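Work Package 4 report. The design task specified in the project plan requires that, given a folded chain encoded as structure tokens, an amino acid be chosen for each position. We show below one input record used in the internal validation round.
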């Protein structure tokens, strides 16, 4: 499929309800922002949802990673780079991007918007007007505040209750399953016991 979604090197753990809800909301809106505190898995969930729907986007699913950017002026070049758009003499980068996305059916993922919130909101609002076939899936600690935006707050992974005192009881929780998978990747002989 066209796009630049990275291949995931670890299995997706749990979050079946959340994944289904993000897919459902994405079908109903043109701008969906997945919100939540850092480390809750917003990026992984958005990438999983995007991979599940990529056949719906004839012109692809494209990821723009914003975490390394510190200056809002670098957002436009980052998106242009994802689409391999070369600077054109006398054509402002914003116009070149508008021209590129206009008439295309694609999903643009803006990952980690929180530190560039105002610039991401302005860009999203403009692109959505310019390109009726464009959808944006964003991840951020807070919503972008753009008219027409739908936000989905991602809860933390489920945790064991205090009464769950055996390995069998706690392994039914997503947080424990994820922990065990990551522990076994680092130490293949790791096994969760009742003593743990």
């Amino acid at each position: 499929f066209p796009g630049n979604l990275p291949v995931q090197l670890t299995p997706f753990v749990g979050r079946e309800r959340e994944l289904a809800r993000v897919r459902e909301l994405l079908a109903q809106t043109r701008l969906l922002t997945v919100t939540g505190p850092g480390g809750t898995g917003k990026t992984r969930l958005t990438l999983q949802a995007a991979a599940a729907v990529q056949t719906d986007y004839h012109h692809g699913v494209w990821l723009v990673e914003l975490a390394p950017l510190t200056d809002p002026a670098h957002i436009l070049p980052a998106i242009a780079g994802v689409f391999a758009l070369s600077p054109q003499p006398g054509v402002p980068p914003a116009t070149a991007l508008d021209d590129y996305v206009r008439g295309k059916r694609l999903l643009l993922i803006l990952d980690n918007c929180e530190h560039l919130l105002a610039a991401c909101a302005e860009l999203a609002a403009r692109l959505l007007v310019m390109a009726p076939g464009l959808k944006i899936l964003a991840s951020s600690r807070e919503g972008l505040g753009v008219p027409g935006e739908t936000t989905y707050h991602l809860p933390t992974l489920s945790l064991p209750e205090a009464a769950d005192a055996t390995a069998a009881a706690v392994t039914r929780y997503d947080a424990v399953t994820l922990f065990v998978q990551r522990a076994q990747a680092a130490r293949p002989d790791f096994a969760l016991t009742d003593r743990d």
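The chain has a mean pLDDT of 94. Validation will be extended to a larger panel in the next phase.
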